Every structure is written in structure tokens, then in C-alpha cells.
Automatic annotation (TrEMBL):
The organism of origin for this protein: Anguilla anguilla
Protein name: Ig-like domain-containing protein
PANTHER family: SCHWANN CELL MYELIN PROTEIN-RELATED, SI:CH211-171H4.5-RELATED
Regions of compositional bias (Polar residues) in chain numbering: 174-190
The Ig-like domain, residue ranges: 19-55, 95-183
Annotated spans, Disordered: 174-200
Amino acid sequence: MNKPLRCGSKSQTLTIDAPVRVEVKPESTVVKEGDAVEVQCSSDSNPPAHGYQWYNITGTLLSEERIYKLHNVSRHTKALYCAAINTEGHKNSTPAKISVEYAPEIKEGPACSVRAAGVACLCVVDSEPPPEITWLLQRGSDASAGTERHGSITLGTLRSTQRLTELTCQASNSRGNTSAVFTPPQSGRPSSAVRKTKMY
């Protein structure tokens, strides 16, 4: 006859140490330049996180709080990262993307040049969201226009087969508008531009 097998043991609690899992809220946000934005970091780990750190995209330490409020957001604020720390180590979050919107700015630089086929003008605009570029010409002038987008920079080009004495580049988006009056070069003189900006 088989005898039952008995095993004696003490009751034990098994603790599984798990790495940090980090979440940032909101994952992305749109804000006007100069405003404030608040982001918060949460984590799931065993043992629990005992510390948090916020970094910008260049790796600069910004805060050691779970909730971080960034004042006076600039267009150079692209993303923020949170690191949650426990006794097993630390883990970085995915980036909290911040889309900063601002009114168009017409950049300094050469405006117009005289060519054999006429006049070529370039209007360089920095803005988010992308601007609508409009050229105002002398009455009766004939010209062709186009735009190219490179990151936050929009290049507005205009070509005319006629000699223009003055023209205006207007750029506008939901955050404001700006304009520049271009004076194409005459008799070898360099071109000039006068800028006016309005923000909403």
C-alpha cells in the first residue's frame, strides 16, 4: 500500500522586482508661444518609483517633480522626457511632443535681384503653422509665384519679366501676420525691405 507523501514548508511571500514603465500625459499638445504647458509623469513598477526627472531634448535637467509646468514656452521647445527611478534602475519615457505655434516672421536677408529675364524676389518666412504668402504688385504687373516648405521655414518666390519698383510680401497664419515692402535694386543699388508684424 502506498503511503501519502507529505511535504513540510513555510509560507513565503514572493516579490518580483520589475523595471519602471513610464507614461507621460499628454503625449502631445499644441500651445501658443509664450504660454505655459503642464505635463505629468506616471509609472508602473515594483518597487514603486521614488523619484522623477524631466529633461529637454538636449538632455538638460529641468525638474525633479512628477508634474512639471513649463512657463513661457518657446518655438525651440520641441519635446520633453520624463525619467522614473526606483531601486532597480530608471527608465525614460517616450517624448512628450510640444507643438509651439507662433506668428510669421520675415527673416533678414537679400530680397530681390535683377536678372536678364526680369526680377526675382525671395520672401523667407519662419512660422508655425505654415503661412499663406501673398505678393502685392504694382497695378498691371505680371509675375509668377511659388512656395517651398523646409521645417518651420517657408520660401516664397516671385519672378517677373518686368522691372518692378516696389512690391509687398504678406505672410499670415492663425497666430498673426506680417508684411515686408521690397524695393528691387535699381541701377546697381541693393534691394531693401521694410517689415511690419501683427500677432493675434
